[in-house]
Amino acid sequence: MNACPDCGAELQTPLVCDSCGALQTVEQTPSPFRILGLPRGWLVDKGELNGALLRLTRLTHPDFHGVHGAEARERAEHNTALVNTAYSTLDDEVLRAEWLLSDLGAPSPDQERQMPQSFLMEVLEWNEVLEEVRAAKASDESRARLRSLREELQGHRSTSLGRLGQRLQASDPGDPVTLRQELNSVRYLDRTLTELDQLTLDLSASQAN
Amino acid sequence: MGYIELDVLDSAPRRIVIGIDLGTTNSLAALWSDDRPTILRPEGETGMLPSVIHIPSEGAPIVGKRARAQAVVDPQHTIFSIKRLLGRGLADLKDELKDLPYAVTENDKGMLEIEVRGQTYTPPELSALILRATCDQACEAFGNAEVASAVITVPAYFDDAQRQATRDAARLAGIEVLRIVNEPTAASLAYGLDQKGTGTVAIYDLGGGTFDVSILSIEGGIFRVLATNGDTQLGGDDFDREIVEFIREQLAEQVSAEDLADPAFLQAARLAAEKCKIALSSDPRHEIHLTLPDLGLNWRRRVTREDFERRIAPLVERTLDCCRRALSDANLQPHDLDEVVLVGGSTRVPLVRTRTEEFFGRVPHTELNPDEVVALGAAAQAQVLMGGTRDILLMDVTPLSLGLETVGGAVSKLIERNSTVPCSVTSGFTTYVDGQTGIDFNIVQGEREMAVDCRSLGQFKLTGLPPMPAGMPKVAVRFHIDANGLLTVTAREENSGVNAEIEIRPTHGLSEEDMQAMLQAGFDNAQEDFDLRRAADLKAEIGTMLLAVSKNQAAADEFLDPESRNDLAQAAARATLASEGNDLDEIRAARDQFEQASLPLAAVLMDHVVKDAVQGKTLGEV
Prior knowledge:
The complex is a heterodimer.
Chain A: H1 32-36, H2 46-60, H3 70-91, H4 93-103, H5 117-135, H6 140-169, H7 176-208
Helix pairs in contact in A: 2-3, 3-4, 4-6, 4-7, 5-6, 6-7
Chain B: H1 2-11, E1 14-22, E2 26-33, E3 36-39, E4 49-50, E5 53-54, E6 62-63, H2 65-73, E7 78-79, H3 90-93, E8 104-106, E9 112-116, E10 119-121, H4 123-142, E11 145-154, H5 160-172, E12 176-182, H6 183-195, E13 199-206, E14 211-219, E15 222-231, H7 236-251, H8 257-260, H9 263-282, E16 285-292, E17 297-304, H10 305-329, E18 339-343, H11 350-360, H12 373-385, E19 393-395, E20 397-398, E21 402-405, E22 411-415, E23 419-420, E24 423-429, E25 439-445, E26 455-463, E27 475-481, E28 487-493, E29 499-506, H13 512-551, H14 553-559, H15 562-580, H16 584-597, H17 599-614
Parallel strand pairs in B: 1-11, 11-12, 13-18, 15-19
Antiparallel strand pairs in B: 1-2, 2-3, 2-4, 5-6, 5-7, 8-9, 9-10, 13-14, 14-15, 16-17, 20-23, 21-22, 21-25, 24-27, 25-26, 26-29, 27-28, 28-29
């Protein structure tokens, strides 16, 4: 850990000094775990994450640095943006997994587009349900089908993420390509869920009118 | 002379920092004092300034109540709901235009223009007039003050173009913008200060022209927005329009289509509709009465609350769709909320209250004055920004996703909606042609997949790249949304370390050049205004002098020598003539000559006063 150039206190985060409140100059973007002062790994305690966000924001937010001149305000904007990005990276399981994967040197989604084989058959079934609902008129039955499909997709998502998380938390995560494929399937599920939610909204809107 | 200097110091206006709610229908200002925000209102008034502008045939534009009074008498020269046009293009407005009694066009730069009396005004210029009048009224209420800077509120769902336009308006009004704050967030601040609450809160803000819903978590003085949604073209105005539409339908047989589109008719119908809406908030029925002698119209029609509710129900449902999306983005269910707060004048409509209660499953909080909370919250935020308190902190979000148009016309998302601001993202670019020194990109805001379905913020042109083989330059473009929710773009070529220049051509905004031209015109006008006022003062003085001379004509005839009498007559004639014109130099010269020429008469009169006094008369009796 470095020391604050203003007061010499040890820095708990590279962004700001806890002790004198001086905003630090940050050239390279530090890891989200370092920014928020949390242990690196898949498991993140939500309470600690929230606590770190609020504590750091109180120190860095531009609202509290506006009276200290344009340069201080600029630095506050920059450092608070880093806090916010770090928070959203760790708060969202997919983004957190993405960060850990890229840190492990796994291929990007563009380099490795495959999903696990076992997953593909189910994808076809789900798409069929969505197509049928879309073609049918808004009805209680359509809504019920979407609800149960949603549950199924959610179940798959958490199983998939659970498997991925277990490997990422292990001392040896194993083959990075299969990690990427697992994460690809989670991303696919997220896109399908978004589509499904939009469809549900459209159904209730068309019934209301 | 010490006391005079002190006096000068005391009479210098106090520079105040205020919060301004720049509303579609009304605007108002608040100030932090004695540990709480208060509305600045002139004695005996509400402080609400109608956001209406009237352009008279002569003289400066009129803003506020007097302008609103002109709405029926002179609809073509009276502009209302200008906020709905801020940062927009003609294509965004569609069916809204047919209800406007004045012509709206788009210039070759994509900027809307309103033509009144042969002069064109852009929405930021007109909004600037409202901001200026709001500040003037606030200063008047405070007594001997001037506005140093201000926090100005905007709907949370305003996109970058609409925010920029608001900031441009403030700049044109000569107001330093301390911060642009989202209306529901400002309201939450006022609510939080009032209730000292902790928990998850939904702010449902239905104003005159815009709707917002924001879900916040309030904890230890930190007001953190979790998600926001809304519609910047949905508000109480649309309720009025439903009634106007109803009136038109009813009158379709007895009034020609041409007369139904007449500005005077539209404005009268609009005001009758507004009155009807307000009445139906407390009464179960209301009689619309429309008198237009020019059209030979004297029409009455009873409307029940049920009729009204049937017509506005789809609009209210649209607000609830926004609430659904906001909750879904925040990963919450309605029952997860600890409180629902209604803000904005349109939440007085009973259907809005019952539907929100049903939707959220709880009685909404309505104790705060829905017209005032936003301005009060803005004043509280101004206090924070001035370093006055660290007890409260707002963490707001950007309402819309930000993306770049890709080669196929799709959108590549850079920043997701509901990201906490400030936030930044850096994206890499390169060239396609050898020696290419510039890159163009189109930045869009919105949730749709294709760029054409989103709002284009403008064409950004990256220039000044050192010539290199295609694909060699590595340009890092940083998109930063600041605490105001405003976008800034900076770029750097990483191999050479050269900072590339970014040229921005806003799709529906003012470029820096336009802005400078308008500010210059403003200064020119200010000089003109100043000259006119000075001329008016001098004319008044001449009037007083003419009156005094004619009152003492008898004395002049009796006691003045012929030469002085002649001089006086000539000077009076010149002054009378000068008073009829507006040539400041001539008026000033005429007044000076008149003053000189009247000196002998003044001396004669003074002489008589003294003589009379000697004869035992008092001064007052002369």
